[in-house]
Amino acid sequence: MLKVLFGVMMLMSVCGSWWGVQVGLFIFSFVFLLMGGWSFGVSYVGYGLGVDYIGYVLILLSFWIMGLVMLASSKVEKEKNFCSFFSLVNLLLLLALILTFSCMDYLLFYISFESSLIPTLILILGWGYQPERIEAGVYMLFYTLFASLPLLVSLVSLYHTGGSLTMGLGCKVYECGISTWIWYFSSVLAFLVKLPMYLFHLWLPKAHVEAPVAGSMVLAGVLLKLGGYGLIRIFPLFSFVNMKFCSLWASLGVLGGGLVSILCLRQVDMKSLIAYSSVAHMGLVLCGLALFGWWGLSGAMVVMVGHGLCSSGLFCLANIAYERVGSRSLLIGKGLMNIMPSMCLWWFLLSVSNMAAPPSLNLLGEISLIMSVVKWSFLGCLGIVLLSFFSAGYTLYLYSLSQHGQYFSSVYSCCSGKVREYLTLMLHWLPLNILIVKSSVFTFFV
């Protein structure tokens, strides 16, 4: 693990070489993938760091998505738009993510969790497209900070009570009074905002719409997973209290996901629609994690990995269309099949993966989550039916409206696609649909 951190720091020294950083990230991805052959439950490496299988999968996803981010953002290098600083910011964000997913101490985990906010904010403010990016950055900053400060106070209180903040050694909370409920909500709220849960999701569409393609891909691919990972780590401390409130989170997850899915059908901005679809998927993840069962945990992990690859690919496609047409509006960017016929195949492949069609990872994860919800409450089936139906509905809406119809009359000619773009999309789609063949990778959860 320390060698991985040292390797990322070494990449920072060559951030002036765009291709060197790209190749280095993909090499690290394959090396870290080979490390998965080790049979470790929890591997401690000292200095408060360690890796279990949950952290391993998310670190691997971080490496892979960051390599694809650099591949998709070659316009920054082509236009010489502070490309060295852009590479450095992305590598700092990757370092913060690796530290977050490998922390075995809750306080170090909190510091790493918050530090990932700074490079993301720099990406949005520095390489965003419109003046509204300042408002989007402020939304993201204050939503996250206001929700996270009570978590810090809660962690200090837990340290005072139990004498340790090491994961697995900390004192669990067994009381069930008003004060315990306050600490419980203070601890969980920070991760619900980052997930984000319905009612705390307003920062996400704003951040996605104003962010460059790199910011959108990282937000959807990895940063939303910080919320799910934090819930996996914090729920065991409050397992007794969580039994009282699991129905609240499960209900909000399923019903909130259904309401956001209906909202998706009213969106005309491509990136906004894909961002709202992330809220719907993460609502189902929250439901699985809150019910605190093996089916829910395994399904949530698979959906987080599948959604990270699928949503990142859809944002990449939206950026490709934006570069050709000059607008993200579905009313202007219609008829893309006429001007980019070969790109239509990738729109179809990633769209069907987004609606959890076989053989994508999303299907495997959503089956586990649906079984978890049905076991909890048969009435939950009604919410699942709404969620699944409207999930297919807004995905078909996105695909049909963007690919069919009369194309924008000002577009007389455009490139149907570059090799770099097809390579980026293929590297999103391949692991998303090939990993289900090797589904034994995820059997350590069940």
UniProtKB/TrEMBL annotation:
<feature type="domain" description="NADH:ubiquinone oxidoreductase chain 4 N-terminal">
    <location>
        <begin position="1"/>
        <end position="100"/>
    </location>
</feature>
<dbReference type="InterPro" id="IPR003918">
    <property type="entry name" value="NADH_UbQ_OxRdtase"/>
</dbReference>
<keyword id="KW-1278">Translocase</keyword>
<keyword id="KW-1133">Transmembrane helix</keyword>
<feature type="transmembrane region" description="Helical">
    <location>
        <begin position="301"/>
        <end position="322"/>
    </location>
</feature>
<keyword id="KW-0813">Transport</keyword>
<comment type="similarity">
    <text>Belongs to the complex I subunit 4 family.</text>
</comment>
<dbReference type="Pfam" id="PF00361">
    <property type="entry name" value="Proton_antipo_M"/>
</dbReference>
<feature type="transmembrane region" description="Helical">
    <location>
        <begin position="422"/>
        <end position="445"/>
    </location>
</feature>
<dbReference type="InterPro" id="IPR000260">
    <property type="entry name" value="NADH4_N"/>
</dbReference>
<dbReference type="GO" id="GO:0031966">
    <property type="term" value="C:mitochondrial membrane"/>
</dbReference>
<feature type="transmembrane region" description="Helical">
    <location>
        <begin position="21"/>
        <end position="47"/>
    </location>
</feature>
<keyword id="KW-0812">Transmembrane</keyword>
<comment type="function">
    <text>Core subunit of the mitochondrial membrane respiratory chain NADH dehydrogenase (Complex I) which catalyzes electron transfer from NADH through the respiratory chain, using ubiquinone as an electron acceptor. Essential for the catalytic activity and assembly of complex I.</text>
</comment>
<dbReference type="Pfam" id="PF01059">
    <property type="entry name" value="Oxidored_q5_N"/>
</dbReference>
<protein>
    <recommendedName>
        <fullName>NADH-ubiquinone oxidoreductase chain 4</fullName>
        <ecNumber>7.1.1.2</ecNumber>
    </recommendedName>
</protein>
<dbReference type="GO" id="GO:0042773">
    <property type="term" value="P:ATP synthesis coupled electron transport"/>
</dbReference>
<feature type="transmembrane region" description="Helical">
    <location>
        <begin position="247"/>
        <end position="266"/>
    </location>
</feature>
<feature type="domain" description="NADH:quinone oxidoreductase/Mrp antiporter transmembrane">
    <location>
        <begin position="104"/>
        <end position="390"/>
    </location>
</feature>
<keyword id="KW-0520">NAD</keyword>
<feature type="transmembrane region" description="Helical">
    <location>
        <begin position="53"/>
        <end position="71"/>
    </location>
</feature>
<dbReference type="GO" id="GO:0003954">
    <property type="term" value="F:NADH dehydrogenase activity"/>
</dbReference>
<keyword id="KW-0830">Ubiquinone</keyword>
<comment type="function">
    <text>Core subunit of the mitochondrial membrane respiratory chain NADH dehydrogenase (Complex I) that is believed to belong to the minimal assembly required for catalysis. Complex I functions in the transfer of electrons from NADH to the respiratory chain. The immediate electron acceptor for the enzyme is believed to be ubiquinone.</text>
</comment>
<feature type="transmembrane region" description="Helical">
    <location>
        <begin position="273"/>
        <end position="295"/>
    </location>
</feature>
<feature type="transmembrane region" description="Helical">
    <location>
        <begin position="83"/>
        <end position="101"/>
    </location>
</feature>
<feature type="transmembrane region" description="Helical">
    <location>
        <begin position="376"/>
        <end position="401"/>
    </location>
</feature>
<feature type="transmembrane region" description="Helical">
    <location>
        <begin position="107"/>
        <end position="129"/>
    </location>
</feature>
<dbReference type="GO" id="GO:0008137">
    <property type="term" value="F:NADH dehydrogenase (ubiquinone) activity"/>
</dbReference>
<feature type="transmembrane region" description="Helical">
    <location>
        <begin position="216"/>
        <end position="235"/>
    </location>
</feature>
<keyword id="KW-0679">Respiratory chain</keyword>
<feature type="transmembrane region" description="Helical">
    <location>
        <begin position="141"/>
        <end position="161"/>
    </location>
</feature>
<keyword id="KW-0496">Mitochondrion</keyword>
<dbReference type="GO" id="GO:0015990">
    <property type="term" value="P:electron transport coupled proton transport"/>
</dbReference>
<dbReference type="InterPro" id="IPR001750">
    <property type="entry name" value="ND/Mrp_TM"/>
</dbReference>
<keyword id="KW-0249">Electron transport</keyword>
<feature type="transmembrane region" description="Helical">
    <location>
        <begin position="181"/>
        <end position="204"/>
    </location>
</feature>
<dbReference type="GO" id="GO:0048039">
    <property type="term" value="F:ubiquinone binding"/>
</dbReference>
<keyword id="KW-0472">Membrane</keyword>
